[in-house]
Design brief:
Length: about 450
């Protein structure tokens, strides 16, 4: 794709663009360039300087959305930085491709909660895309529009405590039709915490037809308002010791919860059709943000390496050969991981979600593992201080470790990649048979006896 000459090359010299590969820069529209710069300015000038304020406000009222979050969301919305993630094929999209949004998301990742200020946080991104793709116009007006405007918030409820939810066909919470309503009974894990009263509704996946011979048509997705009678939050779930207030994660009991039939998404028995459609860009948004998180950890490591106050055995930390090699390895691996994520985003843009599923799975496997590794190396450079609240590194590491299972365990994604690769074996078999046939002919033409090892 030719360079858009309306974007002068000098634009890409700034810090908002200096980690973006040239081939990606060449694909950025003028709108994307403007948005990336605006996101960078917002995160650097509005978000990061207020991290301590955000912590203080959360500590004072742990299960209420901090006033600062509402304040920054209004600012971001006024600057046109809301819902940047929604792909361009949706009417509600702000106009960025997935590749262009990747560059924005990496900047957002520099602070854990920055994406939320721009309504680009999980699970909102996946839920908004799901509703935009599969809901009726009436449902969009009632449920999607408030999410896009930032006046409501949502959560996704699939995981259950009694089954292996990585195989979603095991999902067993009962959804039973009763006249013009559905009745829900069972238990769920995760999904944002009901204690935060800003949470508006869940998108819940359950089993509505357990005897259907086609196991892919047994399940239904529907919208469950959080104030519906019969939903009980048993407890908040800590993740690696953190309660992740004010959103949190809960364990829930559904007892005779009645939902209007109008809240069913797309139709009864179509949950897997919806789920497959949801497994697109949203699956790599975590990976995009983790790259930004790693860049910030890397910057902290560079600062530590060159701090004149820290001189073990009379040398700067960065003067030891082992640390020079550490810095180099982190830089190499981080740049390589970025290429994997950008390739996935570009594949989705050019060839669609289905064609991109392999690179999506690769990103989901590689990036969180690499993030925990890089952040751990940075913590090592800070020694004991790196384990405390003196730096954001411990929270960064914990979040990266959580993301490794947020969309399914590594084994599930590796299985998908490996299974797809196994399907390519026959074409290689054919190619190598052709090699053998040609080699036999050519060897004999040169006057030698062909030796076969089969």
């Amino acid at each position: 794709m030719p360079v858009d000459m309306s974007v002068p090359p000098s634009v890409f010299e700034g810090p908002a663009f200096n980690r973006i590969p040239v081939w990606v820069q060449q694909k950025l529209s003028p709108l994307a360039v403007q948005k990336i710069q605006a996101v960078y300015d917002f995160v650097e000038n509005e978000v990061i300087p207020r991290e301590q304020i955000m912590r203080n406000q959360i500590d004072s009222r742990r299960w209420s959305t901090p006033p600062l979050m509402h304040e920054l969301r209004e600012k971001a919305k006024a600057k046109g930085l809301f819902n940047l993630f929604l792909p361009i094929h949706f009417d509600e999209s702000p106009g960025l491709t997935n590749l262009e949004y990747s560059c924005c998301a990496e900047v957002m990742g520099r602070c854990y909660w920055a994406a939320q200020t721009m309504n680009c946080h999980a699970p909102e991104t996946g839920n908004i895309e799901l509703l935009a793709k599969y809901c009726s116009e009436e449902q969009k007006e009632k449920w999607l529009k408030p999410l896009l405007e930032g006046t409501a918030s949502s959560a996704y409820s699939m995981t259950e405590p009694d089954v292996a939810s990585s195989d979603a066909t095991n999902i067993g919470i009962e959804i039973r039709r009763d006249g013009d309503e559905y009745v829900i009974n069972g238990r769920k894990l995760y999904g944002n915490c009901l204690w935060n009263k800003d949470l508006s509704f869940y998108i819940l996946m359950g089993c509505s037809d357990p005897t259907n011979e086609d196991r892919w048509k047994r399940h239904t997705m529907l919208i469950v308002p959080c104030n519906t009678p019969g939903i009980t939050q048993v407890r908040n779930l800590t993740i690696m010791g953190y309660d992740w207030a004010p959103e949190g994660h809960g364990e829930y009991l559904y007892k005779d919860v009645r939902i209007p039939a109008a809240n069913v998404i797309l139709g009864e028995g179509r949950a897997f059709e919806i789920a497959q459609g949801r497994l697109g860009p949203g699956r790599i948004h975590h990976c995009m943000r983790l790259l930004g998180q790693c860049e910030r950890a890397y910057e902290l490591a560079l600062i530590r390496c060159t701090d004149p106050r820290k001189k073990p055995r009379g040398k700067l930390i960065g003067e030891f050969d082992s640390n020079i090699e550490r810095i180099a390895q982190m830089r190499l691996e981080l740049d390589a991981a970025r290429l994997v994520v950008l390739s996935a985003a570009d594949t989705i843009d050019v060839r669609g979600n289905k064609a991109g599923k392999r690179t999506i799975a690769q990103s989901k496997i590689l990036v969180p593992i690499l993030a925990t590794k890089i952040i751990d190396e940075c913590m090592q450079m800070y020694a004991g201080q790196g384990l405390t609240q003196h730096t954001p590194l411990p929270e960064m590491w914990t979040y990266a470790r959580f993301v490794r299972v947020a969309d399914g365990p590594d084994a599930a994604h590796r299985h998908q990649v490996g299974r797809e690769e196994m399907k390519t074996a026959p074409k290689f078999q054919q190619r190598y048979e052709e090699y053998t046939a040609k080699a036999k002919i050519l060897t004999e033409q040169y006057g030698f006896k062909y030796e076969s090892f089969d």
